[in-house]
Sequence to fold (296 residues):
Amino acid sequence: MKIEEKIILITGATGGIGKQTAISLAASGFRVYITGRNKESGNNAVNEIQEESGNKNVYLLTGDLSTFEGILSVAEQFKNRRQKLDILINNAGSAAPKLIKTENDLELNFAVNVVAPFLLTKLLMPDLKKSSSPRVVCVTGGDLPSKLEIDNLQCEKEFKGLNSYSQSKSAMMALMYKFSQQIKDENITINICYPGQAGTNMTQSVTKEMLPVFFRPLFPVFKLFTKPDNGKSAKIASKSSVFLATSDTMNNITGKYFNKKCKETTMPKCVTDENTGKFVWNYVNKILLDKKLIDS
Fold:
C-alpha cells in the first residue's frame, strides 16, 4: 500500500497500544488523528507521538466514546478537518471493574467496546468511501468466550468482571463481522485483530475481583505479565493493528480475524453464527435508530 497522503484515525490512542500504533504509523508517513477524552492529556500524547515518530502531522480529536455526544463530536471534528479517511482503527476499549451505566443508560463496556466502534464507523462511511482503498480495523481482547450471552449483553442479569469485558468484545466482533458482510460490495474492508497482552493503563486497572474465582490465585502472575514497561509490550502488541492497516496482503480482504502474530485465525463460532450476528445487529441498530443517530 502506498502511504503518501494517507489519512488514519485511531481511537483511544493517547496511551497504551493505541499510542504505539499511532507512533508506528506516523513514523511511516501517515497523517494521523487520535482521539482522547481529555484535551490536556490528549495534546501531551500528540506531542509525544510527533517527537517519537518525527512526524508533525498528528492531531487530536476530543470526545468521550462512552457517550453518543462524544462519538458524534469526534466524527464531526474529523469531517470539519478532512473529507477523506483511508483507515479507521477502532482501538479504544473499556474493562469496567463493576456495573457502570453511562449517561445514555448503556452499560459501560457495551457502550465503548460495541456501540462506539460501530456508530463511529457508520458516521464516517461517507469519508471512507472517498478513499481508493479504505480499511476499518477493530481491536479485540483475549480469552474470548465460546458462547455469547445475548440475553446479558448489557449485564442485565449479571456483571461478571473480565468475563463481561470479553463478552462485549465478542459482541463487537459479531457486529463488525456482520457489518463486513453488509458492505462487502462497497470496497470497504473490515477486519479484526487481537494484539496480545501488554502493560497498559487498562490492564493495570484490573483487580483480583474481576477475575473468575478459580483464576484469582494466579492474579500475581497476571500482574507480572502486564506490569508497566514504558510502552515496550504495547509496541509489540500494536503490530497486528499496523499490519492490518498497511500490509498490501490485506488488499480486498474483509471479515477476517488475525492473531497477535498477524496470522489469520478462526473466529469463535459465536461470532460467525448467523442467528447470533443477526440478533446483535438488530439489537444495536435499534438503540441507534431509536435515538435517531443513524438512518434505517
